[in-house]
Structures are given as C-alpha cells and as structure tokens.
Design goal:
- The chain has ten helices and no strands.
- The N and C termini lie far apart (71 Å).
- It folds into two domains: 57 residues, Homeodomain-like (Arc Repressor Mutant, subunit A), CATH 1.10.10; 137 residues, Tetracycline Repressor, domain 2 (Orthogonal Bundle), CATH 1.10.357.10.
- The longest helix is centred in the first third of the chain and has 30 residues.
- 72% of the residues lie in helices and 0% in strands.
C-alpha cells in the first residue's frame, strides 16, 4: 500500500478516536453531569486507555469543546465550496448551518439537562479559547478570497470573521438561557439574517 494511503488511514483513525472521545464525554456529561465524570470514565466509554485520552485532550472541557471547533472547521470547508458569485452572507449562513444540520442539532429542542451541560461548557474559559482559535486566520483568508480583499492588510475580512464569532456567542448564549427551549440553528439563522440586514433596531410591542 502506498505510503500516502497509509498516512491517510492513520490520520482517519486518529480523527475517529478524537470524535469518539468527544462523543463519550458529551454522553457521560448528559447522563451524570460534567463535574461527576473523570478521564477514566470517558476512556472506558470510548473503549480506549486513559493514556490515549491524554494523548488527544488535556481534560474533559477540551474534549467537549472539540465537537464545536470541529464543526467550525467543517463550516470553513463548506464556505470554500460555495459558489463564488453567491452573496457573502447567504454563503456564510449555509456554511455555518451545514455541519449542525448534518449532526442533527436542529431537529429537536434541547432538554433541561442538555442545556445545563451546554451552559457549563460555553461558560468555561477552555471552551471560549478553543472556539476563538478555531475562528481565526483560515476564516480570514477564506473571507478575503471570496471578497477580493487582502487577508493581511484589509480590515473587511477581519470584521466579517469577528462578526461571525460574535454571532456564535450571541446565538449560543441565547440558546442556553431560552425558556422554553429553542433550536440553535434557528437562532443562528436569525442572527445572521439580522446582521446581513444591517442589524436594524428591534421592534417593540406596545
């Protein structure tokens, strides 16, 4: 088998292991609460050793945050594949929602336990740092390429990427505090639509 195919299989196995550990962390957190699970619990659920867990993640917060950052990277891939002549914010909307909808996030409103776990995850410094890192230089370069701007010298692509980060933060903060629960995908779509429309002042009912 050619070396490049071996390397490809090896990288795929690593990716599958990382996803399995992240999924196991989420499952256990939903069952028992994040504070009550350990690395040993997560490794056992994923069918690997604690040493393997430590090779991939520094702790359970990072393991949980992985799925969010992985979706952001998939959104970037989706954005790059959108038609070049598609309006920017329509392309961004499709790209942002694609991995969430593929994972079934927008199918059902969350339960109270799910919201509690997501709230704890989003409020942790580890998660904020991981997500901030995921929406960074690669996204700036992708936006610059779509808009004919310079990723290093122009302000516009950085403003757009900063706005995408703010949209994520605003939508997820609203999501975890919503009562009754709402769909994250609906909030993201609404947030992007409002930004694309120039963020008009909200109407106030009498």
């Amino acid at each position: 088998m050619p070396e490049e195919q071996v390397l490809g299989l090896r990288e795929r196995k690593k990716l599958d292991t990382r996803k399995a550990l992240s999924d196991a962390t989420l499952e256990l957190a939903l069952e028992h609460g994040l504070a009550h699970i350990t690395r040993e619990d997560i490794a056992a659920r994923a069918g690997v050793s604690v040493r393997t867990f430590n090779n991939y993640f520094t702790g359970k917060h990072e393991a949980l945050a992985y799925r969010q950052t992985e979706r952001i990277q998939r959104s970037l891939i989706a954005l790059r594949s959108r038609p070049a002549d598609e309006p920017l914010w329509i392309a961004i909307t499709s790209a942002v929602l694609e991995p969430l909808e593929a994972d079934g996030v927008g199918e059902h409103p969350p339960t109270a336990r799910q919201l509690a776990v997501v709230r704890e995850l989003l409020e942790s410094p580890e998660t904020r740092a991981a997500v901030s890192k995921a929406v960074s230089d690669d996204w700036i370069e992708a936006i610059a390429a779509r808009t004919g701007t310079d990723a290093a010298r122009d302000l516009y692509p950085r403003l757009v990427v900063g706005t995408i980060g703010a949209i994520y933060q605003a939508a997820t903060a609203t999501y975890v505090h919503a009562d009754p629960p709402v769909l994250l995908t609906a909030l993201l779509r609404q947030a992007i639509d409002e930004v694309a429309a120039g963020l008009p002042a909200p109407s106030v009912d009498d």
